């Protein structure tokens, strides 16, 4: 008769708790040695323990799993189906621990490890990408993760330790004093349309000239949305009710490309990159509001790795001070 799902779950959790509290790496190494040498005597010699100690360690393992792991035969100790599975995971754990030690050594030496970066989209083309290229040239073994999102959402990931640093804005936080902020650059904005958009002009365009257009905007309470609302207010306009709201650059560009009456605002570096590939056109609209700034944001209570500190140095070297 099969156990009920609840009984099975509790039994499994009890086994996990037992393993976490009693399992030792020496026991796993013994399993690997037994698999390689097929002899308790030889495995004990490799482990530099007595045969009695090795036998006791194996018995403890079999008690924890409530199953025999080896069959005794004329050719030696042969792992059964349970033993093969445990040995497989013992090798995986040993390999992972070896890699962990290597990563720690490389991080301590500044030669490698993992760097998780968050960046607002406007900082990526001209600031983040060149700094990453320079970092890779110096430290080719570094593994890098890049998250592109809003500053508010990335600050949560920074708080949780999922990101090492952010290139964005700490002012959007309810508690900006929790962070260190070092200004990098301004983020000028451009008004953009799809490459086939009907709006064409040889001279300057005023914001009110776009009153008939539909807008792709940033979500409410984001700094760039507030700046657009301020520009419309200065032009004597109100935000139209039929806007499309998204924080995604990809969605914005895709929408603009498929429509002849949509218009949006993007960071100028992003807008120029897509304009070079004839996916967007930049309209000659002068923005009257001052540009937003962005910088490096780190946890005030955190300690940066050598490669994170080097990356920040490379970022600062690529923007005018």
Automatic annotation (TrEMBL):
Keyword Transcription among UniProt keywords: yes
Domain HTH lysR-type: 23-80
InterPro entries the UniProt entry points to: HTH-type_LysR_regulators (IPR050950), LysR_HTH_N (IPR000847), LysR_subst-bd (IPR005119), WH-like_DNA-bd_sf (IPR036388), WH_DNA-bd_sf (IPR036390)
Keywords on record: DNA-binding, Transcription, Transcription regulation
Record bears the keyword Signal: no
Alphabetized Pfam families for the sequence: HTH_1, LysR_substrate
Family under the similarity heading: Belongs to the LysR transcriptional regulatory family.
Name used for this protein in its record: HTH lysR-type domain-containing protein
């Amino acid at each position: 008769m099969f156990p009920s799902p609840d009984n099975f779950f509790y039994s499994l959790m009890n086994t996990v708790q037992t393993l976490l509290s009693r399992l030792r790496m020496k026991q796993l190494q013994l399993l690997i040695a037994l698999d390689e040498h097929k002899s308790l005597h030889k495995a004990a010699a490799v482990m530099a323990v007595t045969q009695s100690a090795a036998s006791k360690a194996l018995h403890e393992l079999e008690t924890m799993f409530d199953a025999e792991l080896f069959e005794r035969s004329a050719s030696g100790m042969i792992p059964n189906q349970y033993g093969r599975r445990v040995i497989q995971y013992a090798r995986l754990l040993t390999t992972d621990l070896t890699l962990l030690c290597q990563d720690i050594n490389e991080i301590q030496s500044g030669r490698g490890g993992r760097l998780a970066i968050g960046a607002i989209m406007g900082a990526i083309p001209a600031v983040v990408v060149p700094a990453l290229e320079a970092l890779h040239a110096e430290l080719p073994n570094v593994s890098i993760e890049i998250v592109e999102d809003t500053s508010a959402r990335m600050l949560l990931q920074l708080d949780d330790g999922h990101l090492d640093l952010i290139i964005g804005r700490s002012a959007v936080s309810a508690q900006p004093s929790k962070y260190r902020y070092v200004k990098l650059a301004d983020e000028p904005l451009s008004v953009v349309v799809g490459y086939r958009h009907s709006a064409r002009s040889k001279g300057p365009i005023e914001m009110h000239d776009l009153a008939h257009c539909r807008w792709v905007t940033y979500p409410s309470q984001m700094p760039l949305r507030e700046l657009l609302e301020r520009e419309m207010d200065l032009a004597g306009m109100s935000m139209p009710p039929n806007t499309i709201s998204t924080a995604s650059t990809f969605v914005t560009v895709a929408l603009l490309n498929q429509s002849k009456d949509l218009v949006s605002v993007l960071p100028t570096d992003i807008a120029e990159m897509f304009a070079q590939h004839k996916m967007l056109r930049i309209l000659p609209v002068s923005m009257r509001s001052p540009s937003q700034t962005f910088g490096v944001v780190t946890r005030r209570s955190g300690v940066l790795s050598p490669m994170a500190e080097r990356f920040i140095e490379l970022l600062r070297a690529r923007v005018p001070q």
